[in-house]
Design goal:
Elements lengths: L5 H4 L2 E3 L6 H4 L6 E6 L21 H17 L1 E11 L2 E3 L2 E3 L1 H12 L2 E9 L16 E8 L40 E3 L10 H6 L5 H11 L5 E4 L6 H8 L3 E5 L3 H24 L6 H26 L5 E10 L7 E9 L4 H12 L9 E8 L10 E4 L17 E5 L12
Parallel strand pairs: 1-10, 2-3, 2-9, 6-8, 9-10, 11-15, 12-13
Antiparallel strand pairs: 3-7, 4-5, 6-7, 11-12, 14-15
Helix pairs in contact: 3-4, 6-7
Bound molecules: S-adenosylmethionine (SAM).
Organism: Pedobacter boryungensis
Protein name: Methyltransferase
Family: Belongs to the N(4)/N(6)-methyltransferase family. N(4) subfamily.
């Protein structure tokens, strides 16, 4: 038998039983990430013989899933991963903990459970007449093959300031300058008519494109191979193709595959164009600069607060952003020039050096350069003044030489925290 090359094996949905996936996939093929939602135990008939779930008992069902994910483990790259979207359900007035029963089985195969994510959606399958709370979520289990795995968390951070709580302006040191990391509750509404085309919605519960895209983004790069052993409508396969990944799917019901091929043919080129146009990271570097500038100014504000307590002479601080720091764990260099009459500069410097080694200063990621000067030239058009209590909006209409102005900088920030939700 002629051995197929990787190129011949990828970008296909096989109308085959995924229990036999190793009969088709060459052992040399390497999957970067598997993203799948297995059949929902015996609750839905997907219309093909030998399907997993429907017609099986719980033990058979779990064993079959274990066999499949065990095989997938053997063809997954060492830094690869597995996402399983799965839910618990009720039988005989009791919760059956399917996500956890399955996790225990997969641990035996070597998969490491890294995270349990809650997918919050607006509705799901009916829970049970006797349940007293409404069902609103499903589990997403995230497994990896090893401890070192691909997880591009910086690609999916939130840096849209409208989505951040307003205190990012006042507490910039608490925010990662690249944006807020994902948390473990993901909110994605289930697709509605139109988003996948009417036919699709009638036949399946396809996964939300945005959610699949987030998983692909987190766990793979372009040209990697994404696998779905239960492709159904092919939502994972479609999004993989759009995002320039290679895909491999398995699906028993050939009608579903035909429908997918048709959908791909009709909509792929527009979706690909959209993908190429949307730059998800656009604005991230502006956000990063804003956070770092806010940190630099707040650092000066805190220095003034602490030194004023020690009742040294009146002084102003002249602040400059000096660019990226080369020191480990420091993000940015900033120059703080203390302008005033100091009785003993060496003592003040020693004082400052002691302060900045400790929190909160040590937590700002700033490499400070401390200098002293009796006088410094300020330019009305180039410099901005801040008062002792507010380092996030510069003062308008107050002379920079006024006593009220304590921080002068070429950094211009002007935030009204109430403008942010
Ligand atoms: C929950 S659905 C997948 C839905 C899919 N994630 C989507 O977005 O449409 C599960 C699918 O697994 C398929 N299936 C069941 N047993 C299978 C097996 N042994 N091999 C391959 N596919 C199977 C069913 O036909 C069904 O389409």
């Amino acid at each position: 038998m002629k051995v197929k090359t990787n190129k011949e094996l990828i970008n296909k949905i096989y109308n085959e039983d995924s229990r036999n996936l190793l009969n088709i996939l060459d052992i040399n093929i390497k999957i970067k990430s598997t993203i799948t939602s297995p059949p929902y135990f015996d609750m839905k008939d997907y219309g093909s013989e030998n399907q997993i779930g429907f017609g099986q008992n719980y033990e058979q069902y779990l064993n079959d899933l274990q066999i499949i994910f065990d095989k997938i483990y053997s063809i997954t790259e060492d830094d690869g991963s597995l996402w399983i979207i799965i839910d618990s359900f009720k039988r005989d007035n009791q919760v059956i903990t399917l996500p956890f029963d399955l996790s225990n089985k997969l641990k035996e195969s070597g998969w490491l459970l890294q995270d349990i994510i809650i997918w919050k959606k607006d509705k799901t399958v009916p829970w049970s007449k006797n349940g007293f709370v409404q069902r609103k979520f499903e589990y997403i289990l995230f497994f990896t093959k090893s401890k070192n795995f691909v997880y591009n968390k910086d690609n999916v951070r939130t840096f849209d300031t409208n989505q951040l709580k307003k205190w990012w302006v006042k507490y910039p040191e608490r925010y990662n300058p690249k944006g807020k990391a994902l948390d473990e509750i993901w909110e994605f509404p289930i697709p509605v008519q139109g988003s996948w085309g009417d036919q699709y919605i009638r036949h399946f519960c396809p996964l939300p494109k945005e959610m699949v895209s987030q998983m692909i983004e987190l766990s793979s790069s372009e040209d990697d191979i994404i696998l779905d052993p239960f492709t159904g409508s092919g939502s994972v396969m479609f999004q993989s193709a759009v995002m320039k990944r290679n895909y491999i799917g398995f699906e028993l019901n050939s009608d579903f595959i035909k429908m997918f091929d048709n959908y791909l043919e009709k909509t792929f080129s527009n979706s690909r164009k959209e993908y190429e146009l949307i730059d998800n990271l656009k604005g991230q570097s502006d956000f990063e600069l804003q956070i770092l500038n806010l940190r630099i100014l707040k650092y000066a504000k805190l220095l003034i607060r602490d030194l004023d307590k020690q009742k040294i002479n009146y002084f102003k601080i002249f602040v400059k952003n000096k660019g990226k720091s080369e020191i480990k764990n420091k993000l940015i260099k900033a120059e703080y020039t203390f302008v005033g009459e100091f009785k003993n500069v060496d003592d003040t410097l020693a004082n400052i050096n002691e302060l900045i080694l400790k929190p909160p200063f040590s937590k700002f990621g700033i490499e400070p350069i401390i200098t002293f000067s009796n006088n410094i030239k300020v330019f009305k058009n180039k410099n901005f003044g801040y008062i002792k209590s507010n380092s996030y909006s510069f003062q308008k209409g107050i002379d920079l030489n006024s006593e009220k102005i304590r921080i002068i900088s070429d950094i211009c920030v002007d935030f009204n925290e109430n403008d942010y939700l």
